[in-house]
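Re: export button greyed out
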Amino acid sequence: MIATATQAEPFDTGAIAAALTAGRHDVGAVVTFTGHVRADDGLTALVLEHYPAMTDRQMAGIAAEAWARWPLLGGTIIHRYGRLLPGEAIVVVAIASAHRGAAFEAAEFLMDWLKTRAPFWKREEHGNASRWVAAKASDDEAASRWEKP
Amino acid sequence: MIATATQAEPFDTGAIAAALTAGRHDVGAVVTFTGHVRADDGLTALVLEHYPAMTDRQMAGIAAEAWARWPLLGGTIIHRYGRLLPGEAIVVVAIASAHRGAAFEAAEFLMDWLKTRAPFWKREEHGNASRWVAAKASDDEAASRWEKP
Amino acid sequence: MVDLLYFAWVRERIGSGAERLALPDGLASVADLLDWLATLSPGHAAALADRGAIRVAIDEAFVAADAPIGTPREIAIFPPVTGG
Amino acid sequence: MVDLLYFAWVRERIGSGAERLALPDGLASVADLLDWLATLSPGHAAALADRGAIRVAIDEAFVAADAPIGTPREIAIFPPVTGG
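Workaround output, generated via the alternate export path:
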């Protein structure tokens, strides 16, 4: 299965990925994606608000969907909330499979779905000023490629 | 740039990925791929032979090609050689970019090219028996999607 | 009574993250609900003015504007999500 | 004199990973080179019997069967690669 969690605390991508292969000899491919806070345009912090109960439900649903679509052997998704500084990691998706194709596709699918379906909202802080991040049409387009006919 | 290396020793994917973001605030996405030895059909070890000088040249060329094609901010490729046991990591590709699309694509491209252009040969050990791994047509197909018209 | 939850700038404009309300009879759809909510205060009106930028979840599942309200426990109203 | 390098089962069948040879005149292409090498010993012949499974690199760059030999420093002959 793919474990999902939200937390305020930092996570260790290397340890998360290592746990997916520990003690097993059937995993041939591990893909990790880690999203980080960029200091674009003088950004000084990123504040993530979320809807906890719905986030848990959506992340579990997205994880189950990936599990059904690809032959996966394990996975972990952690999304942070709260106030993050430039350089800090926001989200990690780590996927294990026998082969690389499934691991890459599932990780991309999960990121695209997290961007468009998980109830998080980012607020940028630029010193004393602050603004909510607008949703990107490009994220909707990226997610739409996974829709089944 | 994307650093490339071959080595007999194990590597630490987490440390490799962390080094790509250390002290910088422009990286928004880090993708890692790690390939592991699977114990399929009773495999007891995988022995990787390589052509060192050509491997170095091919890996550097592949890395430069990825750097030219996508807006990347850093990367590391390490490919091991020698005798590896089930579960051990064979290869890591770690890519940093501002956005996830470029990081995912470049990592997949690099893996597809490593599979079809880097002069490594795998020999499977099954107890006392041993056999060379045949190249897969599916790897050639995966690599061909990156060919420019 | 239904729990209304507001997030991000919807929450800021309404001035509260949650309120418990008795919905009037006759709200056939999510769009009807938003029309009614917008009458409650200038903050509600400001928060819901741009319907294209409003997303709604009923009992933690996304719903479209023409979806029926039903008898939910919790309705959440928020801008398009920007996680990941 | 040219350094010939052999890898994987090509190396095993030839019985050596490297040899230094003086190439005869008149080898126009890589295919001609393989034809000549196959005459050197039964091991060479066995290694090069299935030309569809043979890959060649001249001075560390892949070349096709119809490529000219030129005046290389090093020619490597091996099966299709299986790294990654």
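Strands of chain A lie at 2-7, 29-36, 45-50, 72-80, 82-84, 89-97, 120-126, 129-132. The button fix ships in the next patch.
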